[in-house]
Automatic annotation (TrEMBL):
InterPro entries: Rossmann-like_a/b/a_fold (IPR014729), Universal_stress_UspA (IPR006015), UspA (IPR006016). CDD domains: USP-like (cd00293). Residues 11-142, 162-286 form the UspA domain. This is Universal stress protein. Belongs to the universal stress protein A family. It comes from the Bacteria. SUPFAM superfamilies: Adenine nucleotide alpha hydrolases-like.
Length: 310
């Protein structure tokens, strides 16, 4: 099923009907509106683990799966309501379906829930989210637990920030660039975190080196129409350093290691450690996105959608 199909760049949200995926829809609406892009709600008719053995059972399961996927799409559209009108609903039989392949050229961001309907965490081996990351090759925003409504008194409450981890790898520039875009689109400050295994120099000297290394990107964040950027150096493990600076209202941006497969999301990696803790929304930059970082639609000649009243 395809409703309101478009060919323009889009934010894609994977929705399987779970509560977490519906929260991801909320996050995706905000991202689509913020980026002024179309929103694609993607549902997958997944037959795995149904235990069907006979043709009749398979036919019934297929029919039920199709109906369930379409119902999930309708629920997502109802949840979106009038918040964003540029919405496409796509139902595909599998992640390998042509409909998903067509989205690979359009997707600027994939949004997924932290757990699926079967309880698998984001990017767990064999999960739909893992397969979608491989297929779409764009940055992935994992919707974290929604923070509680703020109290009436906001004394001492800090403004949300974008927290990004950088290291000495060449991919750090791309990860930081994506974090800067996220901070600028939100009007938030940027906190750049570097985890040092040991202090070979004063921490402020290390911070100055990181600043100089990424000066162009960081100075763009300090432009008059954007919030400030700062660099912090912690002598600790990367996961601990990132979690120290990320609060429930923030956005945490991390890269991954390895090529081809999601090597950076295996046990023991920084990205995996952050996702296991999930303190807030986490933007993961997989290897494919590093290799082919696509700028925002308004920077590459694409036409963003017109303004829509909320």
């Amino acid at each position: 099923m395809v409703v309101g199909a478009q060919q323009d760049p889009a934010v894609v949200v994977g929705c399987d009907g779970s509560w977490e995926s519906m929260e991801a829809v909320d996050v995706a609406v905000e991202e689509a509106a913020r980026r002024r892009l179309h929103l694609v709600v993607l549902t997958i008719e997944d037959e795995a683990d149904r235990g069907v053995r006979h043709l009749g059972d398979w036919s019934r399961a297929t029919s039920e799966s199709t109906l369930q996927a379409e119902a999930t799409g309708r629920r997502a559209v109802e949840r979106i309501g009038s918040r964003w009108s540029h919405v496409t609903v796509v139902s595909a039989e599998t992640v390998e379906s042509p409909q998903v392949e067509a989205l690979a050229a359009r997707a600027r961001l994939l949004v997924v829930g932290r757990h699926g309907s079967r309880g698998l965490g984001a990017f767990a081996s064999g999960s739909t989210s893992e397969q979608l990351v491989r297929r779409l090759g764009c940055p992935v925003l994992v919707a974290g637990p929604r923070p509680a409504a703020p109290r009436i008194s906001t004394v001492g409450t800090r403004h949300p920030v974008v927290v990004v981890g950088v290291d000495d790898e060449p991919s750090a520039d791309v990860v930081l660039s994506i974090a800067v875009e996220a901070a600028q689109s939100r009007g938030w400050a940027l906190t750049v975190v570097y985890a040092a295994p040991r202090a070979d120099a004063e921490l402020h000297v290390l911070a100055a080196r990181i600043w100089d290394r990424h000066a162009d990107l960081l100075l763009s964040q300090r432009a008059p129409d954007h919030s400030l950027a700062r660099v912090v150096v912690d002598v600790t493990q990367p996961v601990a350093a990132l979690l120290t600076h990320a609060g429930p209202q923030d956005l945490l941006v991390v890269g991954t290691e390895g090529q081809g497969r999601l090597a950076g999301l295996i046990s023991g990696s920084v990205a995996r450690g952050v996702l296991d803790q999930m303190p807030c929304d986490v933007l993961v930059v997989p290897p494919a996105a590093v290799l082919a970082h696509r700028p925002a639609a308004h920077d590459n000649g694409a036409s963003p959608v017109p303004a829509v009243d909320a």
